[in-house]
Design brief:
5 domains, alpha+beta, Outer membrane lipoprotein wza fold like, 551 residues, 11 helices, five-stranded mixed beta sheet, 25 strands
C-alpha cells in the first residue's frame, strides 16, 4: 500500500525531467552525452574543438549543440567535420601591427579569418574564413555576407545569427588573421609592379617593397586609388619625420599606389635642424621649408639675411638676400623649383683673423719644389678676441711646423707686411718679440725652402737640392749652364731668403732657400753681329751714293 504513492511520485518526476533539460541546450547535451556514451572513434573537427588549456574544456564544442527543435545526428556531424578541414587553415600567423585594429574602420574582405569563441558550461572556439564571394559559413547557421562590412558590423551580424539559435550562449567574434591581397605600385618607384599586402599594412610598406621612391620622386603626395573610384593621399616624408600614422593610411583590396614626381623641391642648409632637399606642397614658401627641415637651429642668427640662390631662365644664377622680420620671423618669400636656401649661422657673424702657412700638422712642399701644401689645411680662420697677439694665435693653432721660416714671418695688415721675429718669440721665448694683432690681420708663416732656385737665361731653370760645398758656378752647371741669351757671369745676382740682392762673387756663400738669377741680353751675339754688319752695309752704300752724285 505504501509503495504505490511513492512509485507514482517517482514516475511524475521522471516525466517532468525533459522539460527542465530543454531549458538549457548546453546542459541537455551534456547530460544526454553522459547518459549515452558514444564509443565511435572521433577526431576534432569543425564542430568539436580539441581540448585547450586556456579554455579548460574536454572534447565537445559548439558544433555538437543543436537548437531545441533540431535533433543532432552523426551524419550532420561528419559532414561538418569535413567542411571544417577545408575552411580553417592549420597554421596560425600573427601579422605585425603598429596599433590595435579599429573595428569601426577595418573593412572585412575575402581571406579574412574570424574566430568565434564560445564559453559557459562548454568552452570552444571556431575559425571561419570569408570566401572569394565575401561570405562566411558558420556551421548550423549558414552563410553570412560580410564583404565590405566593418569588423563591428560583421560582429553584430554573426551575433545576431547565432543568438537566434542559441539565445543563452555566451559568444563573441574576433579577427584572427587579416587577409592578403594584391596592390599595384606604379610611377616613381624603383621597381614598379604588383605586390602582396596584408590588410593591416600601410602605404610605406609596399613602397619599400617596390624598391623605394626613385630619384626626384615625390614622397609627400603619394596617391592611393581605391577600387570604388575614391582616392586617398599619403605623405611619407612627414610620416618619416613625425611618425604620425595619419600620413600613412592602410591599404585595401585592389588599391593602386601611384608615386608621382616632384613638382617643387628646394635644398636648405645652414642653421636648420635637418638640412637637406625637401618637396613643398603647402604654402611653398620659406616658412614651409623651415618647418619641414625641423625648424631653425639654436645656432641661427637673425642679424644676417636669408640667402636664396635661384636659376634664371637664361641658366644664370641669381642670389636674393632677405632680412628677417622685425619680430624675428622668417621672411615671407615664395620659392621655385630647385632653389637653394641658406639660413645664416651665428658663426658667420664672428670677426676673425687668419693664420696661413707652415703651422703644425701641415705637409710642407717637397725638396724639389713640385708639391704645394694643402691650402685648406694650411689656412686657419680664428674668431677674433680682443687682446689677441701673435703668440696667442700660435697657441690656438697648435704652434708652427718643423720647416717654418721663423725669420721670414710677417703680419699682413691692410696690404702691408709687418715683420715678426718668430725665432725670438718661439725659440728664445722672448715675449718682447710678440706683436698684437687686429681684426682682419693675417699671420703668414712661410715654409723654409731648403733648395736653390735657378732662374733666367739657363738651359734648365728650376729648383735644385742645397749643397753646402757648391758655389754659384756649380749651381749654374746643374741648370745646364748659361744659354746664348745670358749676360756675362759677373751680371748674375743672388737673392737671399730674406729678400736681399747680392752681386756675383766666386767666394760668395749660398744660403739655403736662395735664388740665382741670370739676366738675359736684349740681343744675342749673332744678332748683334748681324745688326753691325747691316749698319755697316747701309753706311757703305750711302757713301757710294754720295760719291757718285759728286761726279
Amino acid at each position: 500500500m505504501h509503495s504505490t504513492p511513492l512509485r507514482r511520485a517517482v514516475a511524475m518526476l521522471l516525466c517532468c525531467q525533459p522539460v527542465f533539460w530543454m531549458s538549457n541546450a548546453v546542459l541537455a547535451q551534456t547530460i544526454q552525452q553522459g547518459a549515452r556514451p558514444d564509443t565511435t572513434p572521433r577526431q576534432p573537427g569543425a564542430f568539436e574543438a580539441a581540448p585547450e588549456d586556456d579554455f579548460g574544456a574536454a572534447p565537445g564544442a559548439f558544433g555538437t549543440l543543436a537548437p531545441p527543435d533540431a535533433p543532432s545526428s552523426r551524419g550532420d556531424l561528419d559532414a561538418a567535420q569535413a567542411e571544417r578541414s577545408a575552411l580553417i587553415p592549420r597554421t596560425r600567423t600573427q601579422a605585425p601591427v603598429d596599433e590595435p585594429v579599429d573595428p569601426d574602420r577595418y573593412l572585412c574582405g575575402a581571406g579574412d579569418v574570424l574566430e568565434l569563441n564560445f564559453w559557459g558550461l562548454r568552452n570552444s572556439r571556431l575559425r571561419v574564413t570569408i570566401d572569394l564571394e565575401g561570405r562566411a559559413f558558420v556551421p548550423k547557421i549558414g552563410y553570412l555576407t560580410l564583404q565590405g562590412k566593418t569588423l563591428t558590423e560583421a560582429r553584430d551580424a554573426i551575433r545576431g545569427a547565432v543568438s537566434r539559435f542559441y539565445p543563452r550562449l555566451n559568444f563573441d567574434v574576433a579577427l584572427a588573421e587579416p587577409r592578403t591581397f594584391l596592390v599595384q605600385v606604379v610611377a616613381g618607384v624603383r621597381e614598379p609592379g604588383t605586390y602582396a599586402a596584408r590588410a593591416v599594412e600601410r602605404v610605406a610598406t609596399v613602397v619599400a617593397r617596390a624598391g623605394g621612391a626613385a630619384p626626384r620622386a615625390s614622397r609627400r603626395v603619394v596617391e592611393i586609388r581605391r577600387r570604388d573610384g575614391s582616392t586617398a593621399a599619403a605623405d611619407l616624408a612627414l610620416f618619416a619625420l613625425t611618425g604620425d600614422v595619419m600620413h600613412n593610411p592602410y591599404l585595401l583590396d585592389g588599391d593602386v599606389v601611384r608615386v608621382p614626381f616632384e613638382e617643387l623641391a628646394v635644398t636648405v642648409d645652414g642653421a636648420v635642424n635637418r638640412p637637406g632637399r625637401y618637396e613643398l606642397i603647402g604654402t611653398r614658401d620659406l616658412a614651409e621649408v623651415v618647418q619641414v627641415a625641423g625648424g631653425l637651429a639654436a645656432t641661427a642668427t637673425r642679424q644676417l639675411p636669408v640667402s636664396i640662390v635661384r636659376r634664371l631662365p637664361d641658366d644664370r644664377q641669381d642670389q636674393q638676400l632677405l632680412p628677417f622680420t622685425a619680430g624675428g620671423q622668417v621672411p615671407s618669400a615664395k620659392l621655385q623649383h630647385d632653389d637653394a636656401v641658406h639660413l645664416p649661422d651665428y658663426l658667420e657673424l664672428q670677426r676673425s683673423v687668419m693664420v696661413v702657412g707652415a703651422i703644425k700638422g701641415v705637409t710642407p712642399p717637397s725638396a724639389t719644389g713640385g708639391a704645394i701644401p694643402d691650402e685648406a689645411a694650411s689656412t686657419r680662420r680664428l674668431p677674433f678676441v680682443e687682446g689677441d697677439s701673435v703668440r696667442t694665435l700660435l697657441e690656438r693653432v697648435g704652434g708652427v711646423g718643423p720647416l717654418a721660416d721663423l725669420t721670414g714671418s710677417y703680419v699682413l695688415r691692410s696690404g702691408k707686411a709687418l715683420p715678426v721675429d718668430l725665432y725670438s718669440l718661439v725659440m728664445l721665448r722672448n715675449l718682447k718679440a710678440d706683436r698684437p694683432v687686429e681684426l682682419g690681420d693675417t699671420l703668414v708663416i712661410p715654409f723654409k725652402r731648403r733648395n736653390i732656385l735657378v732662374q733666367g737665361a739657363v738651359f734648365t731653370p728650376g729648383s735644385y737640392p742645397y749643397n753646402p760645398t757648391f758655389g754659384i758656378e756649380q749651381y749654374l752647371a746643374l741648370a745646364g749652364g748659361r744659354n746664348r741669351f745670358a749676360q756675362s757671369l759677373s751680371d748674375v745676382r743672388i737673392i737671399t731668403p730674406n729678400g736681399e740682392t747680392r752681386k756675383f762673387s766666386r767666394d760668395l756663400p749660398i744660403d739655403p732657400g736662395s735664388s740665382l738669377v741670370v739676366p738675359e741680353r736684349n740681343f744675342s751675339r749673332s744678332e748683334i753681329v748681324q745688326i753691325v754688319l747691316g749698319a755697316a752695309s747701309v753706311l757703305v752704300s750711302g757713301v757710294a751714293v754720295v760719291l757718285a752724285a759728286k761726279k
